Please model this.
Amino acid sequence: MKHPLDPLLGFHLVRTATMALRAVNQAYGDLGIRHPDAAVMMAIEANPGITQSAIGRMLNIQRSNMVPMVTRLTERDWIVREPGAGKTIRLFLSPEGKTTMPRLHEASRAGEDRLKDAITPETYRMLLLELRKLR
Model:
């Protein structure tokens, strides 16, 4: 049978992302968090005091989507907001958020491991290098 989407890179990228996200979501277990929220937490962990708009630019998340994510994470007491210069609000992980990070990193590794298990290490490195060029 002829597969009409097989020659399309986008089709394979979406299928691969879905496979990796499934592994990540299973690894989140009972945390009740979604992958975009976890990515925001990781951005804050790597850049304490980062602003909401900087995270949005980094992760390519629309401003209108950032607001509910930050609100959810604040309500869960995983991040805290602190005033910065002028009207700037800086974001930090709360103590509870810091204790959650090992599980989030473990979940991310589960998704990456799923990808790494499906291809050779050289192919993994090459794909990562090439996909970073797509902006």
